Amino acid sequence: MIKSKSHGMIVPQLCLLVMVVFGGMMAARRACADDQTLNRIRQRGTMVVGTSPDYPPFEFQINQNGKQTDVGIDIEIAKQIAKDQKVKLQLKNMSFASLLVAVQTGKVDMAIGGINPTPERAQNVDFSKIYYSGGQSFLINKSQAGQIKSKKDLEGKKIGAQSEALQYTLAKKNIPKAQVTGMEKTPDLVLALKTHKLDAVGVEKPVAAAYTSNDPELKEIDAGYQLGKNDVGAAIAVQKGNPAMVRALNQSIDRIHQQQLIPGYIKQAGKHMKANTQNTSMWHYWKYFANGVQYTLIISVVSIFFGIILGVLLALLRLSRFRVFRWLSISYTEVVRGTPMMVQVLLVYFGLGVLINIPALTAGIIAVSLNSGAYVSEIIRGGINSVAKGQTEAAKSLGLNASDTMRFVILPQSFKNIWPALGNEFITIIKESSIVSIIGVTDLVYQLNVVRADTYRGVAPIIVAMVIYFVISFILTRILNFYERSMNHG
């Protein structure tokens, strides 16, 4: 779906917020520069390309010698562009909704992912010329092939497409009385189609071919749209004010077309998809899930550690005699608790990226730690207040100053009181940290979506991820309960 591919109603809007606050400033600054992007790429010898590898046959992953490897039509095009510039290719994976923000804030040199160069997108980034044009199709259940033969038969029916995508707009515009439903990912749409929640799903022709060749229950029909020049084609996005970079990309695209390389890219992508679907058992993808668990636990453990440190600091500031300290603590806590973690993750990764290039994993840990600190501070403040005032008076009678009283008397007792609440916060962090997948951290949810895209199985990867989350939470709960009993008997 020449992207067509867009993730959800909320995610693009949140990304737009970050783009307006930080990306606009960055784009304006670079637009005034002397178009140095291409020179920087050549000087460092590496071209950083953003993509979202959950969209076969354009970009997806395969298990190659035990390593997750990005492949697909767009990946081959990116390789050719890097080869033409005599530099190495470095792929940076993230959600599609984050790609244009990454371009604007300089996280990547360019973004490729079947991006349709709409006039709205062209206001924020520059585009190369079209490198691939494909027609529009609908996926339907083969059992309904007799009733649905063309878009005319879809009038008044339920049609699915990726939210705010080209296919979504085309269905709204061209099919009278259709009930068009937007979802975040194509595998979700196909699952809704197969469970008869939708009558058809609008996709790009290569995507339709990929699904029908790997799922005998699906059938492709031509969309029959009368398409304008802005309704077809995929282009490469670069930062505003980079004409030399655009010219270099266009030269590579011209060379690719002259040498007729794209048919070969499509054929190669088909081979990879066929290899992926030869064994779609979840055990075959155990390394994907294991890698996701590893990153999920790293983020959770490190974030709760720093969250507790920050929480103690904020709680002490909140209880301070100085009004300015109390105001700072209250303000921080209210802002963090009053905004979605998704916005905070985007803000840290892309917002701070204006000043310093933070890796996705580090940005995810920082964002989750800052979020956790606000909640932990309230838990700790409640624990401190739960300690009887007589404990403070007893400490004073023993000659302890305020600092030692807090350190040796109040905090140890308060932590004993709040242990269950801290345990719940840890478990919550394990589950909510999945939001970092939006910036390309390969946690469990990220790997879940990759497996769904590679295997064309909508439900099985979800069940595996649910079981893994449950097992982690169950084991952690038992460990926390054990230490809670130990403290109570201590």
Number of helices: 18
- Structural class, by secondary structure, is alpha/beta
- How many beta-strand elements? 12
Q: What shape does the CA trace take?
A: elongated
- The overall pLDDT average reads 85
User: In sequence order, what are the helices and strands, one letter per element?
Assistant: HHEEEHEHEHEEEHEHEHEEHHHHHHHHHH
Subcellular location: Cell membrane
Family: Belongs to the binding-protein-dependent transport system permease family. HisMQ subfamily.
Protein name: ABC-type amino acid transport system, permease and periplasmic component
GO cellular component, one term: ATP-binding cassette (ABC) transporter complex
In short:
The protein is of the alpha/beta class. The chain has 18 helices and twelve strands.
Report on the structure:
- It is found in: Cell membrane.
- Belongs to the binding-protein-dependent transport system permease family. HisMQ subfamily.
- InterPro entries: AA_ABC_transptr_permease_3TM, ArtM/GltK/GlnP/TcyL/YhdX-like, MetI-like, MetI-like_sf, Solute-binding_3/MltF_N.
- Residues 293-480 form the ABC transmembrane type-1 domain.
- This is ABC-type amino acid transport system, permease and periplasmic component.
- The protein is of the alpha/beta class and 490 residues long.
- The chain folds into 3 domains: 10-131 and 233-278, 3-Layer(aba) Sandwich (D-Maltodextrin-Binding Protein, domain 2), CATH 3.40.190; 136-222, D-Maltodextrin-Binding Protein, domain 2; 284-489, MetI-like (MetI-like fold, Orthogonal Bundle).
- It is built from 18 helices and 12 strands.
- It has helices at 10-31, 37-44, 73-84, 99-104, 119-122, 166-174, 186-194, 205-214, 243-258, 262-276, 286-318, 323-337, 341-351, 360-386, 389-397, 402-432, 444-455, 460-489; strands at 46-51, 60-64, 67-71, 88-93, 110-115, 125-127, 136-141, 158-162, 179-183, 200-204, 218-222, 235-239.
- The strands form 3 sheets. Strands 4-1-5-12-6 form a 5-stranded mixed sheet.
- α12 crosses α14 (360-386) and α15 packs antiparallel against α16.
- It starts with 9 loop residues before the first helix and ends with a helix.
- Residues 3-9 and 27-34 have low confidence and may be disordered.
